Each structure stands twice: as structure tokens, then as C-alpha cells.
Amino acid sequence: MSQVTAAVSIPAPIARPARPPALSAATAQVAQRALRKYLRTPGLFVMGMVQSALFLFMFRYVFGGAIRAGSAGYAGYLIPGYVATIVLFTGGGIAVAVAEDKAQGLTDRLLSLPISRGALVAGRTLADFTTNGWSVIFTAALGFAFGFRLPATAADGLAALGLCLLYGLVFTVVFIVIGLFAPNAQAAQGISMIAFVLAFISSTYVPPSSMPGWLQPFARYQPVTPMVNAVRSALTGGSHDLAAALIWSAALIVAFTPVAVIRYRRA
Amino acid sequence: MTVTGPPLIEARGLCVRFGKVAALDGLDLVARPGQVLAILGPNGAGKTTFVRTVATLVPPSGGGLRVRGIDVARDPVAVRREIGLAGQFAAVEPTMTGRENLRMVARLFGHRRKAADAASEAVIGMLGLDEVADRRAGTYSGGQRRRLDLGASLVGAPRLLLLDEPTTGLDPAGRAEVWAAVRSLVAAGTDIVLTTHYLEEADELADQIVVIDHGKAIAAGTAAELKAGIGRDIIEVALAGGEQLGAAAAVLETLTASPAVIDHAGRRVRCQAGGGTAQLSDAIVALDSADIPVEEIALRRATLDEVFLALTGSKKDVPGTKAGSLR
Q1: Which helix (H) or strand (E) holds B325?
Q2: Residue ranges of chain B with pLDDT lower than 70?
Q3: Are B276 and B131 part of one and the same domain?
């Protein structure tokens, strides 16, 4: 270790910035930081992929044999739903990261800088949408490896993928808000478990009609079911539940984005 | 007064409430340019809340707060351009290198890419981070991390640097590193307001000290002025066994003519002493001739606990004195 007396040399003058950063520049910096953290934390990046693969493997090959759903076999039923809802499983990491930034003082540092609160939300969303988008694309590729085949054209497949990416954006904002309200990282993880309920009690893994009668209304009318149905339908060029899926997506974004901006202002 | 212009910080009857709890309860405080101001107080006194309010992270609930003449409640955005904040949690991104952290914050202050690189380079040199600049901050020692945090608050050349408990949790070497860094900033003309619960730290770094408790300023002045108000140094004796605590206290009281305080749990006796090292030698001799086996004996400055005891005239709420009994 160097001596303490040698730790400090004559300061060079540091220039003062002429003006605060533009919204785009600040957004890019905030996003870059979040992405670097994600890519450089193997527990987030690599384990996220391993987990996605493991769950898909178990549903497809362990439970799949006992489940009758859809006309195209269980792979054809499960995999579109799995890809559409993968962000509900990986998104908990977003809430945890946001809560950690708050607890470790990084959010305070950013808030004390002359940047707009919009840049904080936009940068965070951009980064997390990128990681969610990667989850969607990776899981879709896994789906093909696990026996999924496009029932119709590639264009229909792309439309379905586009919907899945849209859901990635929707739930990014939802998980950011969860992270902002959670008192700490553990709580953020815990609250994110609600997403599991939404994913399981929906049409993702089994048809709601196979559930007990008292559970069916929830399974049918919560947002995830129309979202998943719209993806399945889009794969064959259809538009079943598409309107409901789009309305739910827009409503969630419109409801949660201002909450995130306001909450960041007071974080 | 040689310094002109508005005060760095001017708080008048500042209140910050969280629900029913008043973290700041009518705080009055003025920090002038060209001086280092230390805000001293125990945990929960309102130090961090004050820094967070100055840094526009918490809105005032009442009273006035101006930073370089700018009203914090009216124009927080303008205040953010004036300040650099280094918090007690060392807010750097552990997965990024020191250099990457500094560049990011420099860009967020508004520097363009080249200027951000130059500012980061200058700060790395200034704080002696050259050797570790390209390592991830997560691998830094506590002292290095705090210096990087300090550096991150400097890359935008703020007019006021806010340091919230800059050395809390650091080992003595880390503390010395941070102190050296702060001193060099002061020498370069940076205006600093810092909080601490170490009297020693305020003494080392500050020109002016404000003591706060329960959200109010209870004393202000230079270190010398405060110490004159607090009184003398303290002789502290630790014994191996508890039986002779009373006898040791009697010896010290006779010697110093001040009341001694017995801490039964710690097997210690403390006593104010105005006679310096000569009196310490006398105490050693007197204890020895009274056949009291001493495990440890020291002459030391008053601690913050004792400052508070002196300032508030009450043992209430002072940590560490509950076990003591006044004879």
C-alpha cells in the first residue's frame, strides 16, 4: 500500500460543465450503467438463462406428458405461452436491482446530479427492456430447440415475437415500480413472486377451463391470459384476444410510468 | 469579513418531517464560503437528513434553506448544479471500474465525452487512484472506495461538496486516506460541509463546527471554542477485576478534585483531568501505591458522548453512559 501522505497530489483544475446534460445523453449513461451491471453479474445474466432453460425443460418433458392441451401437442401449447410470460420470471431481477440501487445510495447519487427524473426512468427502462428482450429471444430460440415448430408463416412468428417483446416492455415498467416501492432487495424479490401467480393462474401452462370453477374467473380475466392467447393466435395469423392484450399493455404502461417518475422524484 | 456573496448554506428554522417524526426541528445554521463546516451529532440527530435536504433529495417541510442564495424548495434543479454529494454508503457502481464510474458521473454532470475523460483523469491523479483506476470498484478497499466516491462528486467541479459521514465504517488507515484527500481539496479551495459523529474528525478537518441533536443546533463555534466549553481531558482507568473500582475512583478524585464516573460493566473509571501528562504519571504512581492493579490507563480527549454530556447537561440519550454511575 502507498503511504497516506502520498495518496494525494496537487489537484489539477477541473472544468465546470457549461450546462446540464441533454435528456438523451443522460438516458444513455443511466442505461449503460444498468446494462453493464447486468452483463457483469453472472448471477443475473448467466443464471437467468440457465433458469429459463431449466423451467422450460421441466414443463416440456416432466409435466408435459401428463398435460393435454391444444391440438398441436403440449410443446405447441406451452412454448408460445412460456415465451410470452418469461419476463414475469426474469423480471424479478429488475425489481431487485432497482431496490439495491436505492439501498446502496446509487439512486441518491443520480438524483443529486443535474439530470431530469425522466432520464432516470427512461434509462432504466431502456436497459431492462433490452435484457427482457434478450430473455424473450433466447427463450424463443430454446423453444425451437425443445421441439416447437412454427404452425404458419415466419411473418406470423415475427408478429407473435413482437407481442412478446411488447410484454417485456410492459412488465419492465411494472417491476421498476415494484423495486421503487420495496423497502429492500429481499422485499422486492418477495413482492415479485406475485408475477408467478399471474403466470401460473392463466392460460400459459394449462387451459383455464381445466381449473376449478372458482379459480376460472381470475384465470380468464387477469391480463396475462389475453396476452398469452393473443400470442398463440398470432402464430396462426389470427387476432383472438389481440385487442384485449393491446389494451391491457397500454393501460399498464400508462398507469405505471408516471408512478415510476413520481416515485423516483421522492426516492 | 473578507468573504462576500451569499452564504454557502443558510438554514433558518428548517423543518423536515417524516410522518409524525421531525428529523429536523427548526434548525438554524450558516456555512460560509472558504471554510470547512462540520456538522457533529450522534446517530439520529438529523445529520443525514440535513445533507439530503441540501442535496434536494428530501423537500423541506418548513422554514428556509438556501444554497449559495438559491432557495432549495423553489429551484432544486439549480441547486443540483452547485453541489457534489458523497454519501455514507459510498455510492459507486461495484461492477464498473473506477474510471468508468468517474466518466459516467462526469457525463451526468453535463460534460461532453472529452471533457469527461479529462475530469476523470484529473480526479484520479488528485486522489491517488492511478493504480486502481482500471479495476472494478467492487474489488477496492474501504478507503479506496470512499476516495472514488469522493472523486465522483468532484468531476463536475461542484461549488459545494457535501460529505455525509465520509469515514464511518473505515479502519484507521482508510480514515487517514480520506482525511488526506479532504485536506487536499480544502487546500485547492473547495468548500466543504461534512457530517460526522467523531469529534476527532471534526477537530481534524473543520474550521467551524455545529453540534446538532434532535434536529436542532445546540452549539456552534470553532473546535477550540467548543473544547473550551467542554472542559478538560479525561483520565480513564481499566481494572482487571471489579472489586477495586471504588478504591480507584477515590484515588482519582483525590488527585484531580473532579468527580469520577464508574462503569461497572466495563470495569472502568473515568475522571476529568486538567493536569496533562504530569497528572497521568501521578495517577499511575498513586494507583500503584494504593495496590490497585491497573490493566490499562490513558489520558485522552473528551469523546462525543462526553461532549454531549457537557453540552446537554444530561446523561439521557447518550449512548455508552447508561452503565456508568455517578458517585
Answers
A1: strand B324-326
A2: 1-4, 90, 227-231, 303-310, 312-327
A3: no
**Is B1 a domain residue?**
no
Domain match, B189 and B242 both: no
Mutate to test the interface with A, among B16, B51, B52, B107 (most CBs of A within 10 A): B107
Residues B253 and B212 in one domain: no
Condensed to tens digits (0 to 9), the pLDDT of residues B255-266 reads 888 888 888 888
**Which of B297, B295, B309 has the alpha carbon at shortest distance from B252?**
B297
The residue type of A245 is A
Residue among B77, B111, B185 minimizing CB distance to A17? B111
Same domain as B237, residue B198: no
The answer to whether residues B109 and B202 belong to one domain is yes
Do the Cβ atoms of A11 and B122 come within 8 Å?
Answer: yes
For B269, the domain range is 232-326
ipTM of the complex: 0.90
B157 and B281 part of one domain: no
Q: Structural domain tally of chain B? A: 2
Nearest chain A Cα to B164, which residue? A105
Q: Give every CB contact of residue B76 below 8 A, 6+ residues apart in sequence.
A: B56
DSSP at B46: S
Q: Give B-chain residues touching A106 at CB under 8 angstroms.
A: 91-93
8 Å CB contact of B111 and A25: no
**Residue appearing with cell numbers 415500480:** A177
Q: Give the distance from CA B98 to its chain's centroid.
A: 25
| Three cell numbers written together for A51 | 433458469
Whose CA is closest to B111, among A249, A51, A20, A60?
Answer: A20
B254 and B315 belong to one structural domain: yes
CA distance B1 to chain A (A): 27
Give every strand in the sheet of B21-31, ordered side by side.
B21-31, B9-18, B62-67, B70-71
Given B91, B95, B109, which is nearest A114 (Cβ)?
A: B109
* pLDDT value, residue B1: 45
Instruction: Specify the CATH number for the domain of residue B187.
Output: 3.40.50.300
pLDDT in the model for residue B116? 96
- How many angstroms separate the CA atoms of B86 and B101, rounded? 13
> Which pairs from B283-292 meet CB under 8 Å and 24+ separation?
B283/B235, B283/B237, B283/B251, B283/B252, B283/B255, B286/B251, B286/B254, B286/B255, B287/B237, B287/B248, B287/B251, B290/B247, B290/B248, B290/B251, B292/B239, B292/B244, B292/B247, B292/B248, B292/B251
- Write out chain A residues lying below 8 Å of B128, CB-based: 2, 6-9
SS3 readout for B83-110: EEEECCCCCCCCCCEHHHHHHHHHHHHC
Ordered DSSP codes for A137-186: HHHHHHHHHTT---SS-HHHHHHHHHHHHHHHHHHHHHHHHHHHHSSSHH
Q: How far is A37 from chain B (nearest CA, A)?
A: 6
